[in-house]
Structures are given as C-alpha cells and as structure tokens.
Amino acid sequence: MKTFKDLLMVSLTGLFARKVRTLLLLLGPMIGVAAIIAAVGLTDSAKGDLKAKVNKLGTNLIEVSASSAFGGQDPTLPEDVLDRARSVVTVKSVAKVHELANIVVTPYNEAKDKYEAVPIPVLASDVLLPSVLEVNLISGRWLNDFDEQATSRSAVIGIGLARQFNYLPGETRTIELGNIRYGVVGVLSEVELEPAFDNAVFITFSAAKADFVDTDKILANKIYVRSQVGAEKDTSEALKVAVNLGGPDEVTTDIKSEALQLAAQSDQQIKLIVVSMGILASIVGGVGIANVMSISVIQRSAEIGIRRALGHTRSIIASQFLLESLFIGLLGGICGVLLGIVSIFLGATIAGWVFVLAPWLPPAGILLAMVISVIAGLYPSVRAAKLEPLETLRLG
Amino acid sequence: MLHEPDTDADVSQQQPANEPYVEPLLELKEVSRVYGSGDAKVYALRDVSLRIMPGDFVSIVGPSGSGKSTMLGLLGCLDIPTSGTIIVGGKTVTGLDDADRTEVRGRTIGFVFQQFHLIPHLDATGNVETALLYRGLSKSERRRRAIESLDKVGLGHRHEHRPVQMSGGEQQRVALARALVTEPKILLADEPTGALDSQNAENVMELLTNLQSPERAVVLVTHALEVADAAFRKVSMRDGRIVSDMTRVR
C-alpha cells in the first residue's frame, strides 16, 4: 500500500514537472472522448424533445378496438369487456368508449349549414377515461356517475372543438348533437396520444343509448388500457385473446406511443459514424502518447538509471510510467467529457434542442481514454524497465 | 598510463594473519566479465579477486580501458560477471535475479557519479528522498531523514533548491547526501570530482574522507592520481587485471 502511495506520488510529480508535455499528451484522449460524447449527446439531443414527450406521456397506453371480420357493420366488444381486460394481470386501469356514427354536431342550431360538412366524432365514454388517458380538464368537470345514472344530457368537449366554437372557460353553453341540445360541463385538455379526442364530444353511455341508439344495449367498440410499464407488448397480445375470446368480432390493439417512440429514436447511422471518428481520434491520441512517452523514456534514461541504482526494481519503474499514462488517460478523459458536455450544451442551445446526456456516457468516455492510454503506455513502460542502469549512467 | 604503486608511502599486506577474521563487505572471487562473443570477445575483467573490508577507504585506479568501470558496475551489483562469484554482505549475488539484486543494491550500496545524476525536476530534498522510496517509510519520515542527510553534507540551507539552481559542488554534495541517506555499508564513488573545479573537488574529497568509518567502506573509482592518493588503499588496474593492491599505514 505504501509502495503504491509512493508510486502515485512519483508518477504525479513526474507529470506535473513537465506541464506542457503533459498537456500535449492530454489532448489526444481529450479530443477523442469529447468527439464521442458530443456525437452521442447531440444526436440524442436532436430528438430530445420527442424523448421527453414519450417520457411524459408514458409508453403504456394501449388501445383495444373491435374490428369486424367480414365487413360487418358496427363491430363491438363483449359486454363484460372491462372485466375481461382487467383479467390480464399487467393491466392497471381501463376505460371504455363507443364511437357514435353520423351525428351532426353544431354549436347552435343556426350554424347547421356550416358544420354539417365536417364530421365531429361523438363518443359515449365512461367516467374513468381521463384518468386512463392521464389528461386533465382545462375547465369544468368530466362526466360523473350522476350524469350516467340520471341520463343527463351533459357533454365534455375537446380543446380543439372549444377553440373552434369560441368557447370561453366557465361559460355556460350548449351544443347541438343531432338537434338535441346538450349542456357543456367541461373542456378536456390536449390528448397527445389520441389527437382525435381534441375535436371530439364526450357524453355518457346512458345518454347515448337514450338519444342515439335504437338497440336495447350499447356496447363499447373501443377500450383504453394502461398496462404496467415494460409489459406493453405482452399485455397488448394478452388483451387480444382476453377481450375477444368467444366473441364474433375481431380485436386489434395499438400501443399508442409506439410511433412517437420510433420518431424519438436517434439517427443511429450518423451517431455510428461520428462515434467511430471519436474512437479513431482516441486511438490516434493513444499513438501520440506511445510516441511521446517513448521519447520521454530516452530523455529520462539517466533518471531511470539512477532510480535503478538506488534500488528501484524494474517492475517499479514500469509501474511508474504506466501510472503516468493512466493519469494522462484519466485527466484527458475527464477534460474530454467536460468539453463534450459543453459542446452538447452549446449545440443544443443554438439549435433549440433539449439537452440530453445519457448517464453512462461520461464514465464510458473516461474509461475509454484510460484504457487507450494504458495500452499506449505499455510499450514505453516496458522499455523503461528494460533499460540497464550501467548503460544509462555513463560511468567514467 | 600505468600507475605504479606509491613506493614512498608505508605499505603493508592486507589482513595480517594474527588479526581475528572479519567478514568482507564485498568480495569478488575470480571474476571475469566478457563483452561480445566469438572473435569479437573482449575481456573487460579477467579473473579478478578483491575483498572490500569494513573501514576500507579504497581507490581503484587505472587508465581508461583498464576495466575499472566494469569493476564498479560489478561491485555495485549493476552488472553480473560472465564467470566468478560476487558476495555482498555474506550473500552471493551472482545467482540472484534482477529484482533481488536490486534489493541488495538498494540496501547495501550508495552511489556517487561523476555527472551527479540528480533528477532535474526534484529539489534537493526530493532527490535525496528518492533513495528512500518504496521502503515503507512515511512521507514525513522520508523528508526528515533527507533533511538530516543534507545537513550532514553542509547543505542545510539548500533544501528547496533544484539542481539547476546549484553549483556543481553543491549538486555533488546532494548526490552524496542521497547516497548516504540509506546508511549504506559501501559507498561507491565514480570519479566523484571529475566534473568539479579544484576547490569543490577538495571539499567533496574531504567529505568522502570523513565519511569513511569502521563499519563502512568507501570505494573511489578514478583515473586521477591525486584523488586516488587520498585513499588508504589503492588498487591499480591494467588490462582487466589488478596489478597492485597497496594499503598505506594510517
């Protein structure tokens, strides 16, 4: 231990005694590591906003829809779809909706001519929908159990529709759904994972059945499920079976964040090219270290000789030089990481990206610099150890 | 130039038979050192036997090419002989591997060189401390001993100076302090005054003379006769052989 402490001291003294040389040696690994960090960081940062969005919205929202097998109309999910979905153990929460077809929505009766051409989806939905989507209301409230039981004509509208209809927050307004007047009780905020909801009208299942459906039952044709994080794919597959079992219609599932996640992937090819260049720069830096250290061994041969005469063994001498190159790698790595981080920060700021730095990058960069420096230091160290004191001391 | 034994001085044979046996600090037994091979074979040293006793102040003299440098390398365990045996402090070093030989060297022998060989980026104390590294000593203990050793050679005021800031004489005294700090049994000095002016040379020679003690041996390798004359025992070499080995009565 004491020997190691002594070695550490000798190596550091050796490095600090030749500041300019040490600085020049640092440049190689430093530039290499900085290039790698900046390359990875900038390609990540370029998609950083999308990544942040994925993280914010969550990756675990799954849509389960009914689809008819042979062009049948209005496919539906089984009546006990919620229980069926909950039977999948990785399902955390679930809400059902029914998309109603062909309902003309207008803000008021007189505007009918203007709005008929543009279909606006009307959804019967259950009270849990906002909590499953993890969205809030901009104003007012969501449909509640009272609305459902009382078959009240309450409606919640999406934010896009609210803008389109010039709806003011808190304003008491009505909306015409196929000539039936509904009271707007709330406005839903933006649903980024289901943008169609921004221009939709939500009413209760009971009201939908009473006003718009002729059959005696109204069944859901779509459910939204939140699964355990990481189990999205398995849950999605399990839901298909669980929901569809024994039913006449087919079931399709869609992990809502998948497209977004794909878009958030960094450009792997550009990353690969720049990282390769960074590694190349590090290796060139390593060759530089090997070169300068070899010359240094020749320059310091008298020092090595006297150390050997004073009783320092070959392995001590080799360790001394190897430690010097290890420190060069460590210092160069740290400087490179800092330079890389500054580059990402500057690049991201100028381009208006979100600063992204993978936590494994700085330690990996420092490690790479150290490994390359130690490999580069091997040959000079062995050469230093092999020097014969008699030859270097030039006895008179 | 061959140096003949100084016949004016009183001389006597080494180790009179009536004195009790004292173990030599260093002994060469029929040592040869050959460089090259085949036709290019050169005998730098041929069947040389020599004993360095505690309290010896020996000078090894001879013209260049006489084998005295080879001799110094072998005495200092910096080199291994082609044949023969070297015993240092009762231990045969000729069979040892490099690491063990290095250990014996560090423990028993102190070196002083013509070119001082101080490490340029270390100050005087740092240079002296170098000899104490890797011996399990704390930094403060190393420093204390280094300063003590510098004080002994009269450089108490130059602890923090680097070699470039010191005169040749001062540098050689730092080298002496470095050689002495490990309290070696044998001090090997190779042309210690070769790079010094006469005044500094005189000072260094005076220091060396005072360093000789009943337990320690001082060995000077030189071609300068006036330096050799300072020693009590003079070993003259020529063509790789010892031609005379005289001891002056003190």
Describe it.
The complex is a heterodimer of chains A (396) and B (250). In chain A, 55% of the residues lie in helices and 15% in strands. Chain A has 16 helices and eleven strands. In chain A, strands 1, 2, 3, 4, 5, 6, 7, 8, 9, 10 and 11 form an eleven-stranded mixed β-sheet that branches. In chain B, the strands form two sheets. A seven-stranded mixed β-sheet of chain B has the order 1-11-10-4-9-8-7, with helices on both faces. A four-stranded antiparallel β-sheet of chain B has the order 3-2-5-6, with helices on one face.
**Main sheet summary of chain B:** 7 strands, mixed
Portion in strands of chain A = 15-25%
* Helix fraction of chain B by DSSP (H/I, runs of at least 4): 25-40%
Our count of helices of chain A gives: 16
Number of domains of chain B: 1
Residue runs with pLDDT of under 50 for 5 or more positions of chain B: 1-13
- Order of strands across the main sheet of chain B: 1-11-10-4-9-8-7
Give the overall form of chain B. globular
Radius of gyration of chain B: 18 Å
Q: What kind of sheet is the major sheet of chain A?
A: 11 strands, mixed
Average pLDDT, all residues of chain B: 88
Oligomer: heterodimer
Primary descriptors:
heterodimer; A: 396 residues; alpha+beta; 2 domains; eleven-stranded mixed sheet; 16 helices; 55% helix; B: 250 residues; seven-stranded mixed sheet; four-stranded antiparallel sheet; 7 helices; disordered N terminus
Topology:
The complex is a heterodimer of chains A (396) and B (250).
Chain A: H1 2-17, H2 19-46, H3 48-57, E1 61-67, H4 81-86, E2 91-100, E3 105-106, H5 112-115, E4 122-125, H6 129-133, E5 137-140, H7 145-150, E6 154-158, H8 159-164, E7 174-177, E8 180-188, E9 201-203, H9 205-212, E10 222-227, H10 232-244, E11 250-255, H11 258-264, H12 268-299, H13 301-309, H14 314-351, H15 361-386, H16 389-393
Parallel strand pairs in A: 4-9, 6-8
Antiparallel strand pairs in A: 1-10, 1-11, 2-4, 2-10, 3-7, 5-8, 6-9, 7-8
Chain B: E1 11-12, E2 26-35, E3 42-52, E4 57-61, H1 68-75, E5 83-88, E6 91-92, H2 98-108, E7 109-112, H3 124-130, H4 139-152, H5 168-180, E8 186-190, H6 198-211, E9 217-222, H7 225-228, E10 233-238, E11 241-248
Parallel strand pairs in B: 4-9, 4-10, 7-8, 8-9
Antiparallel strand pairs in B: 1-11, 2-3, 2-5, 5-6, 10-11
